[in-house]
Each structure stands twice: as structure tokens, then as C-alpha cells.
Amino acid sequence: MQQEKAERITITLPPDMLSAIKKKVGSGSYGSTSELIRDAMRLWQKREEEHQARLSIIRERLEHSAQNGTPVPLKTAFESIEALHKQRIKKNV
């Protein structure tokens, strides 16, 4: 696999973030600031992909729900939820 050409950028960080980066690089956990930032970006990208996947599943479930079953008026739904909540409170007393 051929690596893409890297592009140099400039970023501004608050002192606490910069200190944490320097500390990790200084401890030998990372070979360079760039290596740490690339690792952080990979983690962020993974988190974003997982977030998008979760949103996609939620959207699919909502669409499935909208296409199936009988619609329930919002007031009725909240009344049912309130009744269930009261039942659970009574059981726990």
C-alpha cells in the first residue's frame, strides 16, 4: 500500500493540550508530535464512523417503525409511559 503524501499544517492548541502532547512525546510513548496527532486523528475518525453507524441504525429502526404498526397519538403514548412508571414506583415501595 502506497502512503499518500503528507501535508504540513499549523494548529493552535491551548497550553494544557500542548503540555499533554509534549509530555507523551517526551516519555517515549510517541516518536513525535506528528505521530501522536495522527494517532489521535485515527481514534477520532473511528469514533465518527461508529457514531455514523449508530445513527444509521437508529434511522433504519425509525423508518421501520414508521412503516409498520398502528400509529399512536403522542398524548396516548405519554399516558402509557406515565402509567408504566407509576406501576414500577408502586412495585419498588
What number of domains?
1
Spatial separation of the terminal alpha carbons: 64 Å
Which of globular, elongated, flat, extended, rod-shaped describes the shape? elongated
Number of helices: 3
Largest sheet, strands/sense/barrel: none
Uncertain spans: none
- Order of H and E elements: HHH
Overall pLDDT confidence: 93
What does the radius of gyration come to? 25 Å
Structural commentary:
With 93 residues, the chain is mostly helical. The chain has one domain (15-92). It has helices at 15-27, 33-67, 74-92. The longest helix has 35 residues, at 33-67. The radius of gyration is 25 Å and the shape is elongated. The mean pLDDT is 93.
Highlighted features:
ParD_sf, ParD, mainly alpha, about 70% helix, about 90 residues, Addiction module antidote protein, CopG/Arc/MetJ family, toxin-antitoxin system, Ribbon_hlx_hlx
List the helices and strands and how they pair.
Blueprint: H1 15-27, H2 33-67, H3 74-92
Concise synopsis of the structure shown:
This is Addiction module antidote protein, CopG/Arc/MetJ family. This protein is an all-alpha fold. Helices cover 72% and strands 0% of the residues.
